[in-house]
Amino acid sequence: MNTNTNTNTGVGNTRVWQVSGTAPQAGELAEAAALMREGGTIAFPTETVYGLGADARRTEAVERIFGAKGRPSDNPLIVHIADTAQLAELTLPLGAEEAALAERLMARFWPGPLTLVLPVKPGAVSPRVTAGLDTVAVRMPAHPVALQLIAESGCPLAAPSANRSGRPSPTLAAHVRDDLSGRIDGIVDGGAAGVGLESTVVEIAGGDSVRILRPGGVTAEALREVAAHVAYDAVAAPGAGMGEGGTAADAAAAPRSPGMKYAHYAPQGLMQLVKGEPDAVSAYIRAETAAARERGERTGVLAFAEHAARYDADCVLVVGSLAQLETAAHGLYGALREFDARGVQRIWAETCPEHGIGHALMNRLAKAAGHAVVRV
Ligand code: AMP
Ligand code: MG
User: Fold this and answer.
1) Mind listing the pLDDT tens digit for each residue in 23-33?
2) Which member of 45, 83, 361, 370 has the greatest number of CB atoms within 10 A?
3) Is residue 165's pLDDT more than 80?
């Protein structure tokens, strides 16, 4: 690193490097890459959210991720690579048809927010990464800082989201600082993350089929352009945990993606999702916020831009636009953290149709609300 051009404003023992999110300069990541090679834990931006990375091959390094996050040890980590050549070091070969589908998925979506669950090569990564499963989840992030850090460190990086476990994922370096300062070795600050929601996790379900284990930045519609069949794990289907399509039992069933069973992304206030016709939703939320204020509670509403003016809660936050749901994906976690910063105790959230990125958005929102959904 060139210390003349980088500001190090770390807290505790956590170094912070400011870098360009679009074109990191040669050498800017050298110190972070060196720390990574030595078994350090470094947070860095990706096109989904900020990740907390460590060398996936070193158990003591990976254990420091779990420790810093307070993450349950049965929740496996995604391994991030910068070059498809690294796949051969990490995974076992697939059958011909599955391999052809995997190739097409990688060609279409990598680098990008698609994670593939593949058979792990024994001994290739720490058993802490796979939580003892015989598969490993791998993706190639579409972010110049992430790609350069992986390449420069020479390590496959195990990297879950860089938040304390249970908190909303970080979309800014400031969120990482709030959660993990003093608990990790460094933060590469490359500005805002991209999509704002985590990757889509899929497994190849035989032949020309993929199964979505966790909805995310790559939509089912986009996957259907590449795979003949796209199925869902029960907990990942549209409607799962939203009181329709799936059921609460689905949401509680043992998912194939272990992380799906955890209450995640939760703000500190109690949140409820409200489904129905927009006018009925607004009327319900206005009545509920008024009643809660009467009781002396600090109220919040998470609304789409089109409806925000309808509410007069203590804290009305616009998640994004219904007409452009990508903006809502981008804004969700920041908004959940903002409710916490403003001490909001009760939150009502509008909902959107579960297609395209709306599916992943509602999946995260339902989890943030602990699956408390009311239909009006
Ligand atoms: P996070 O790192 O917080 O984005 O979470 C990673 C997600 O990938 C969690 O939902 C994990 O359960 C899932 N995952 C990681 N490895 C595997 C695997 N080998 N099989 C199935 N799901 C996995
Ligand atoms: Mg996470």
Assistant:
1) 888 789 999 99
2) 45
3) yes
Long-range contacts of 225-228 (CB under 8 A, 24+ apart): 225/108, 226/101, 226/104, 226/105, 226/108, 226/109, 227/101, 227/104, 227/105
Pairing of strands 114-119, 229-232: unpaired
Q: How far apart are CA 249 and CA 373, in angstroms?
A: 15
DSSP class per residue in 260-328:
GGS--S--SSEEEEEES-HHHHHHHHHHHHHHHHHTT--EEEEEETTTGGG---SEEEEEEBTTBHHHH
Q: What is the pLDDT of residues 256-277, one digit of tens each?
A: 877 777 667 889 999 999 999 9
pLDDT, tens digit, for every residue of 66-77?
Answer: 999 999 888 999
Strand partners for 350:
274
List all residues whose CB is within 6 A of at least one atom of ligand 1.
75-78, 117, 130, 133, 135-137, 160-161, 198, 201, 213-214, 256-260
Strand 42-44 to strand 51-55: parallel, antiparallel, or no bridges (unpaired)? Answer: antiparallel
Residue 144 CB contacts under 8 Å (≥ 6 apart), including other chains? 21, 22, 23, 24
Q: What is the best residue among 52, 212, 213 to mutate for testing ligand 1's pocket, by most ligand atoms within 8 Å of CB?
A: 213
Distance 368 CA to ligand 1 centre (A): 18
Q: How far apart are CA 17 and CA 149, in angstroms?
A: 12
Closest ligand to Cα 165:
2
Q: Return the ∠ at Cα 54 (arms to 48 and 59), rounded to 5°.
A: 135
**Residue 139 marked in a binding site:** yes
Ligand 2 ion local residues (Cβ < 5 A): 161
Question: What tokens were used for 2?
Answer: 């060139």
| Domains along the chain with CATH numbers | 2-189 (3.90.870.10), 202-252 (no CATH), 270-375 (3.40.50.11030)
